[in-house]
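Repro:
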Amino acid sequence: MNVRNNIQGSIIYGDFIAGDKNVYTIQQHRDLFDKPIFLHYLGPKISKLLWNGRDNWNSIINTTKIIALLFDNIIVSLSDLTQSPAVYNSEFFHKLLRCKIGDTYLISCTGTKTNQDLSMFLEERKEFYERPGFYQVASMETINSFLDNIKAAAIPKRFETGKFLSQRWIEQLTQLGNDNFSINDIHENSMKNLIVANKNYFFSRKLDEIILIPDRLRGFPFVWDSINYLNLISVPFDPMSVENLEVYLATEWINCYLDNYGALIPNGLIGIKDCSFGIEKNTDLLYVISFLSQYKMIDLICALSFEKLVELKQDFAFYLRKVINDSFNGTFFVLSLLRVKEEIEKIRYSNIDCYSKIKSIIIYLYEERR
């Protein structure tokens, strides 16, 4: 907390200060875009959990366009990029992986210990991920050009998600054997729901069977498909319990990346009000989407070609970030919201191209702010 004294009193920058008529509180300004952002929603497993199995490709592309425009440090998992044909066959993602802002790649792709052993990565996935039905692994022939793009943006992965998941699983479940244990001691709602729904199973002699699942995976990923494929539990879970288990494992998988890269996830996507899985390490993308919608920019941005999106990022993203951050922090004011909306409508219906419309709206809002 920084303190500055003056004749009238003290101005204290921070989140809380005890009341005093000579003491004024100024909330710290929060930057929505200063941390790395992890795109956790690309893989079909998590995507299915978020959209309840519905088609979501337009939402994924359009949300990623917004993120690419406004964020400068974007992290993706190699595993996610190679799971879905909609991703690795997408011209948008091919271009996104090749995109550089100055000398730095916009996307950092992590998943292997080096950035060269991608064929070995795919072979391993075919053996341990395709067999249990987790996802269909692309062939080298199908994905070869995509992998060339990934190599440039790849950063070595210095941690093992499997070990992280196993450790968290064991930490959580060993609490069940404690006489003083309460179900409220389990923090993840999905894990609580799983235990409550299968209470007799978890609090019986079968507890060891559950705790030891990670030790019995034999190289397979820690997902329900593997547990089912290897017959690791003797009592089947009902569909709701399976979903709770998958949500829990997805949450811990995401946390592993956030902890290791100091990153955040978006708390919402276009068409999804909450995609955070209860994870507190998130950035308020819902606010960003709401702001862009309010000022009639979101459909214009989504309609841009990739090349125009990059041009907009290089020339005007700074001003747009400034306006959004000021609005988020309560320091963005206009004299007449009605007049602003009327002016924006004039811009939208003017006889200029989509890029020029967005540019004009950004400049107008930046100059109008008070």
